[in-house]
Design brief:
The structure is a single chain. The chain has 144 residues and is an all-alpha fold. The protein has six helices and no strands. Helix 3 packs antiparallel against helix 4.
Length: 144
Amino acid sequence: MNVSLFRLYLLRVLYAVLALAEGSIQLPLFLHHAPWTLNSGVAHSFLLALAILSIVGVRYPLQMLPLLVYEILWKLTWLVGIALPLWLANQLDADTRKALFEIGPVIVLIPMIPWRYVFQNYVSKPGDRWTSRAPVMSERAAAA
């Protein structure tokens, strides 16, 4: 399946924005931080790694699509599983409200992803083999 050149450049812009935005926040924090809690250290390390991998996405936008899909999935999971129940119960505190406005804009990414490509290459395409033995080709397939 071909992905349009426009879509490839759009993906490159997304990766670049993700790398610059997240990297400009996380790198200074990582280099000059006070002692973090375990969870805070894990979260900041994850986000810095995400920014670094996004640089690879600028060069290889289709191969790095799982990175963007993961970004969308974890944020949607948080929005639906954490923020929405608190909002429905009218229990949003200031920190959750702030996170909601930082995480919520992920919905703008959804239409930018070439979902047909994702489906064809990561869902419907046969997976890699599970055994060390290569599959045997039928005579008909070998002759073709």
